[in-house]
From TrEMBL:
The keyword Transcription does not apply. It comes from the Bacteria. This is Extracellular solute-binding protein. Keywords: Cell membrane, Lipoprotein, Membrane, Palmitate, Signal. Residues 1-20 form the signal peptide. Pfam families: SBP_bac_1. It comes from Agathobacter rectalis. The keyword Signal applies.
Length: 472
């Protein structure tokens, strides 16, 4: 009998488009706006925190747990800074409403809050105004920059090179392995399975271990090593990061989707599909109800996903506790970057604020200091961007933490083994939505639903569609 999901699944969450996931409906791979632990809200919620006699700040978000983070942090700020206390009113809006309201107020030059969350897919629209709309955060981030993950900070830069957003998480892509299911099928102990996983360095190694598992499982066509996505670009982002490529072209370049990294990944996935090493992810990717059920049924035993996916296990697949091991992603060639940051929300300070300096100082402290990062990890479950925390034993190896309890190994040990310089970045710019929409609606379905379809032809069609947008 199938295990049942333990709570109502994230209808509201899945109705929000995360740029790294794609599309405009559940079949097209929509995901949580932040790619994090919680759904975007469907109603307006307002709460005020802090010192009523302090400087008043307005903050907008689309996730109530984010607002609660600022509520916690402002109380600590006021204790530490009695000479410049803050009262903050946090209003949580539905995802689309908040971003529309923010952009409208920035364009009008009135009505914007002091501080506002901006989902990464919406960030190009908001950062377009650069320092006319937003406060550059360079001076306020400098105390933390030496230990912040560079790729994540760069995600929230403007074309002028200034930092305009403070991140919640790295979103580092890792590989999740079901050690219990692998051991049962292969007749191996947990330590023996982990030794095999740790021996995986390249995609060839990964394929070889997968072949060994599928043969041992003896249910070819039913039990698979992994699943590939027709409604999400995570696999492709990982491939690009490994080769240091970026199909967007960044702020100044022209988009080019006909990249060797993309071709290699799609061709490899077609091979896996033909050999029954992989299946197409139910409903397009693993971050939907069908994907959760597929994992719980042990129909797949490995897949790459950002570290924020840990919360999907704790929230929706609790019976999997103790089964899963987190590891580095394989690379095409040894020595390549082995991860990429996916998803995210950058928080900005607007030029309309009457307390810009205080708002910027508080924001960066709340999201980048070790105190702020501790609360982000404890309450939001995100892989934090300040690497000073990664090597802090009290922070990283706290056995009371739900994620440390859930997985076989410590998540931050994996992050440390990756290293902040081995986490790549794919730019999120004006052309990004066009690329993602076409990839998810057409390209991935062409080449993965029909693994005999020419990858070169599919990417040429994609390039033609992107070029039409670029030429406008």
């Amino acid at each position: 009998m199938k295990k049942k999901l333990v709570s109502a699944l994230m209808c509201a969450t899945m109705a929000v488009t995360m740029l790294a996931g794609c599309g405009n409906g559940s079949k097209n791979g929509t995901e949580a706006a932040d790619g994090g632990t919680e759904a975007a809200e469907s109603k307006v919620v307002t709460n005020t925190y802090g010192d009523s006699k302090g400087t008043h700040l307005e903050m907008w978000t689309f996730v109530e747990l984010h607002a609660q983070h600022y509520g916690t942090m402002v109380e600590q700020w006021n204790k530490d800074h009695p000479d410049k206390t803050i009262e903050i009113t946090c209003t949580t809006y539905p995802y689309g409403d908040m971003h529309t309201k923010l952009l409208t107020s920035l364009e009008a030059g009135t009505g914007a809050p002091d501080i506002c969350d901006v989902e990464v897919g919406q960030f190009p629209n908001v950062v377009a105004g650069q320092d006319k709309w937003l406060v550059p955060l360079d001076d306020y981030t400098k105390d933390y920059m030496s230990t912040m993950v560079p790729a994540r900070m760069e995600t929230y830069q403007g074309s002028d090179g200034h930092y305009y957003g403070a991140p919640y998480h790295v979103g580092a892509t890792v590989m999740y392995y079901n050690v219990k299911a692998m051991g049962d099928a292969m007749g191996l102990s947990q330590s023996d399975v982990i030794a095999k996983i740790d021996g995986v360095k390249t995609w060839d190694d990964y394929e070889a271990l997968g072949t060994e598992y599928v043969e041992a499982a003896g249910e070819k066509g039913t039990k698979y090593w992994t699943s590939v996505d027709t409604a999400g670009t995570d696999w492709l982002w990982l491939a690009m990061a490994e080769y240091g490529e970026d199909w967007t072209g960044g702020f100044d370049g022209k988009a080019n989707v006909q990249l060797d990294s993309v071709k290699k990944m799609l061709t490899m996935q077609q091979k896996w599909l033909k050999s029954d090493l992989a299946e197409v992810s139910p409903d397009g990717h693993v971050d939907l109800e069908a994907g959760f059920q597929n994992i719980m049924d042990h129909n797949i035993v490995s897949f790459p996903k950002a570290m924020w996916y840990m919360s999907r296990f704790t929230n929706y697949m609790p019976d999997e506790k103790g089964n899963w091991y987190i590891a580095k992603c394989p690379t095409f060639e040894e020595g390549q970057k082995c991860s990429v940051g996916i998803g995210g929300t950058g928080t900005v300070v607007t030029q309309q604020s009457k307390a810009k300096e205080l708002a910027a100082e508080f924001l960066c402290w709340a999201k980048m200091s070790e105190v702020g990062e501790q609360n982000i990890w404890d309450t939001l479950g995100f892989d934090v961007c300040n690497t000073a925390c990664w090597t802090n034993d009290t922070f990283a190896h706290n056995d009371e933490n739900q994620y440390n309890q859930f997985f076989i190994n410590y998540p931050y040990d994996v992050l440390n083994s990756i290293g902040m310089d081995n986490i790549g970045k794919i730019s999120v710019v004006k052309i990004s939505p066009t690329i993602n929409e076409n990839v998810c609606n057409t390209t991935l379905n062409e080449v993965l639903e029909d693994p005999d379809y020419s990858v070169d032809d599919a990417l040429q069609e994609l390039q033609d569609a992107v070029d039409m947008e670029q030429e406008e």
